[in-house]
Amino acid sequence: LDQLVYPKGDETVLFLDSSVDADDFLNGLKTDNRIYTGLATQFLGAGWYSDQGFWSVDLSLRANAGLSAPKSLFELMKRGNGAEGTTYDIRNLKSTAESYVEAGVGYSRPINDKLTVGGKLKLLLGVGSAEAQIDQLHAVMNAGQWNITSQGTLHASVKGLKTEEKLDKEGRPYISGFDVDGAGIAGYGAGVDLGASYRLTNKLTLSAALLDFGFINWGKGVYGVANGNFEFDGFDLAINESAPDQPSLSDQFDSMIDDLEALTHFREQGQKKRTTRLRSTLNVGGEYELLKDKLTFGLLSSTRFYQPKAYTELTLSTSYRPIKWFEAALSYSFIHSQFQTYGLALNFSPCWINFFVGSDYMLTKVSSEFVPVKSTAADFYLGISVPLSH
Fold first, then answer.
1. What is d(CA 117, CA 182) in angstroms, rounded to the nearest whole number?
2. Residue 179: partners with Cβ closer than 8 Å, 6 or more residues away
3. Which of 81, 239, 243, 344 is 20 to 30 A away from residue 210, measured at CA?
């Protein structure tokens, strides 16, 4: 995020601020830039042994969001009002967001003294989903304004969702916002987790798992298209520059989002159903036991299937258990690391309770607003489990 936010005295500002040099900012970007975020919160969970197998049930809330934006969009945003006839061609701009409740039932059991297999079936209840895609946006500076020609689609599925509209300068309505009247289930789906571990030798165990393989069928939702011409005033580079105090980073983001919404005029075209697939993950790993029940080393390959591309990370870890009720682990991920992505985890299990906390992407530097400006990712884990019987 240090490519999007910058220090300005004791404050933090967006790249749109006039204090940020345009060339320095743009030279740090790729042709295609992506941001992904995900949240998984388990409300309830329980597990128990039955004969040789282990059953588990859980209820969770999942939320994912992503943005794929070409460098040309950021150039238009940062350069502002160019000379007469200045032209930008922006292609393949896409943003997605979805949230759903997951109810799962899992079962695992050893097949023999070396092989253990397991799986989980999941019922998915869709809370909401939105996808906006601009296939092509052509911007030409004309008489101090941008003349915009765009092609794209918008899908939004939320129970009770209604659109808010504004009129452009030619009197044509376009979607300017949304309002939700009531709440409910917007879609249904199903998913599955599959996994297995194999003890190759007394010291080496191999494992693999496919997680979140499934889909959600969304009911009728708002469908819009962008296929016309309109005038755009441009991005406000000096965000509240005349104000006595620097606006907060969240206010700067809000201002940028307002300008982006004005740049993409979607016109409502009725309602449509659609199906989305889950954001799946493929894990393949190995663990070597050096001291029985005390010291192990592991290597994990984790591939997350984002849209439109997959993201793979390779993580090396070690775990040490000096006493029965305490264990500590260190990890380092090195494909996208820049020597930043190390992790730490602690597990305590005294008496009747188990408590764990950890992160495989530690924050190395944050801004005054606690924004992780030097990390390409952040990942935290925290939990408590209570055994009901032994």
1. 43
2. 161, 162, 163, 164
3. 344
